[in-house]
């Protein structure tokens, strides 16, 4: 979903707060210095996500953006920003380094550390926020590349900048499938640019295969309760073929279907002995664990643990009596 910010549609007295609300809620928590005259506060932005990459294109007459030590302690997942200068100049300051950007230049900064962005002539940039675990950078690599200008004269940085610019311009027109297909090459190209700047392999501490593997495991865990969680859907969600999916899992020593089944069984066991267990029928536990029916769940559970789900729960919770199907009390909302 793409969101458009346009202060021309906002009353002058509300513009500063409207910008703050959008940026804090959709991009990152920062303090922004605006024009003192509310009538002259101006900003236009397009904000959205493309396959896990948050993209924010902004034109504004704001001058300074700060991520303060207090804001660094928010609950944002550790991420890096890549800023791409569209026109004019700006400065990225983090730690003891400062990068001066001209049109077409890139710079990286870390959301886990305070930073300042200076835009004396106003803001005209694309910002890309990428989770560190997706990018696969080691902490040392992140620290080594923050507030470093990546620009003209570096062919890999130029390729990355051109790709990111076109990705931002295509935002809102890409299908979900197209966005998923673009995620791996986008991350690979950016990591290549950073590795090139470092001059060694520190940025490659976590190769793309390992990043993809971690993303697949996380996706499965987040979608265990979905009966439609199939290898085809997992592959589709990550923009890879079934063959590639099985190869990645084999490289991790995982047989996908049995692993999903085991994860669902582990989830079911937690539900069976949860504090709210007395409100759940076996059918409800099966449904909330991603099994298509209570009968199928019971067969799989007994094969794995030697007891039916009902007997296993009664064994673990002496004195407990599993409610009969159709008499479940709905959980509190």
Structural account:
- Helix content is 43%, strand content 19%.
- The chain has 13 helices and 11 strands.
- The strands form 2 sheets. The chain has a 6-stranded antiparallel sheet, sandwiched between helices.
- It has 3 domains: 2-206, Jelly Rolls (Sandwich), CATH 2.60.120.10; 210-254; 257-316, Homeodomain-like (Arc Repressor Mutant, subunit A), CATH 1.10.10.60.
- It is α+β, with helices and mostly antiparallel strands and 333 residues long.
- The chain is elongated, with a radius of gyration of 25 Å.
Entry keywords:
333 residues; alpha+beta; Jelly Rolls; Arc Repressor Mutant, subunit A; five-stranded antiparallel beta sheet; elongated
